[in-house]
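Loading example: each entry is read as two labelled lines plus one structure line.
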Amino acid sequence: VDPATGFLGAAAPRQTTLMRVVQRSAGRTALLVGLALVTASAVLRGVAWAAAVPAWHGPDETAHYAYVERLANGGFPPHDRGHPMLSPAVSAALSATSAEAFGLADPDRPRGPAGAAPREPPGLSQRGHGALGANNYPPAYYALALPLYVMPGLETATTRLFALRLLSAALAGALVLATFALVREATGRDGLALAGAALVTLPPMMGQASGIVNPDVLLALAAAGMAWGLVRRLRGENGAWTFALIAGSALVAAAAKPAGGVVVAALGASFLLIPAALGSRRVAAVLTAAAAAAGIVLTGLALAGGERVQAPLAFSARYLWDFYLPRFPSLTGEPAASRAWIVWVESGIGSFGWQSAWLPPWAYWLGLASVGAAVVASVAGLRRSGPGAVAIAAASAAAIVLYAAALHLAEVESLLRGPGQLLQGRYLTAIVPVAVCGFLASAAGLPPRLRVLTVGGALAIWGLLSLLAFDAVVTHVSW
Amino acid sequence: VALLAVAALVAVPSLLLARAARADVVREAASVQDETFRVILSRAGATGRMELRAGPYPQVEDGRVFLQVMVSANRPRASFLLEPRDAHGRAIRRCSFEPGDYRVERQTQTTVLACPVPDSTAVRGLVVEAATPIAAAAVHVSRRDDGRYEGGGLLEGQARGVGPALDRLSADRSRLFRAPTLLLSLGLSTGLLVAGLALAIGADHRRAD
């Protein structure tokens, strides 16, 4: 542990002999090759998911595609209110790919490359109006997609859709690199950084996000970049590059999705306030007092507001329980896989990602057990870690809780107002790189053998879940 | 490293393709609580034996496991054996049907076989043996005679082999994203991940030495 910063320092042997120099150089080359392979693996996993998910069946994929289509044809969806209209090209594509039959898992959906659906004519009009549910989205992801959309040789909406899916696959590669940098900064260890880079795209939801037209993976990339900058700042790197990294990533996050601002706020607040509170009793006291005051005010409002305030609060609490905590089958007689806490293992296909291709029930329990084991290992690791690692782990955990709580409140508010917007679940993908960072920063403190076992176990479990989910989707779609 | 990577590259898509090559269509059905559950049905082999995993079913008074199977109306000569199984694979009942014991619905070319079970909640599977390959079958538990399903699943036979499997994996996808792309990118992705991690672990060990 570096006494100046409290962080675990990177192994830096003194190069006193030629052999050591050669060994170090060979190790670095192997690391770079390993990183390149893991990055390529994530990109190819995105391509595989792009091939596995039927056309137009990524969550809200028609809306996200329509956004790019509008941009390519001189429109701007945030300005298009009312009268949404799909372009003739998209309408024809939906028919030609039997999108409705796949969506409803119709037994008569096509079972081969030449289905019964009408052929999709090339060169149809791309004129439409609005971008359905993506109307209020900021434009960063869609602007990045434009070069792929206008590539020569793409004559139909379906071929353009699959071309756009490649952007998400490429962004998954960038996410791997950003997570490598983030974890390396947090732990000072190359091996853990590579493990984090491999781990970040393995959860099935991340796999699906890497293979569909949707800004989720861009938001996760921006979150990883911002967290990297914030960890650099924690380590005392206060140069222009650090601040450019934080500001640039925050801008990209805010321009990626409406939830981007919430990610920025959760990360910023957690990585600024938590380390400050851990380092100063006075700051900790002020924060505790502020939290207590907020609690008292809220309790007072709830008591004074009567049923009108208490009912939504009770609903919020019940919904939170229903969402994240398992309803044990032995207690309710219902199958374990019916609960929403499985989002971390969710394969996510169809409509919003809720109409899922189910994995065998034991897979969900395995995912839950893995997360539980990671939490236990993290706590054990932190007991042997310096204050730097504790600050990073605590800030990461706080960011996850803050972000999930903000999504929950927004979701409950929208549910109480009307049909509601489902915000938790897939939206949590944005925080996955931070979760990986927090886990590995804590695990770095474990004894070497236990560390290898913990991290290797996590990689093995999530690698298995990744393949199982892929298989579930292909099975769901193809037979 | 190379061996590990090649093994992963070959094994993962091969497994997927092998499953697709042997697959019958699996259907999901709604139970009375409107919760979906999965009914996993293994393929009907040449001997006409299949093992179905089904349930959990609700408590049904005087419950019977029904099996609806396709039978030729012109030659109803097949005999059937139904064995509802519990969670441990033990037979709960054993019901056999000879050609004269069942009636074939001419319009749908199907017949419904009923096997009484003392406790419908215990049913977790059904072994079916038929003297003929079974093309399609539905299984459900019900005490009603009006044919209304109270839960169950459906098995549909379909063409087996690598060719039909590749076709199914290519169903209505853009030309460049059909089965070869799917299998190759999945295999390469798994192989490269294994190779990347193995290389890095090796490098870590060398440095530790």
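Chain B has a mean pLDDT of 71.
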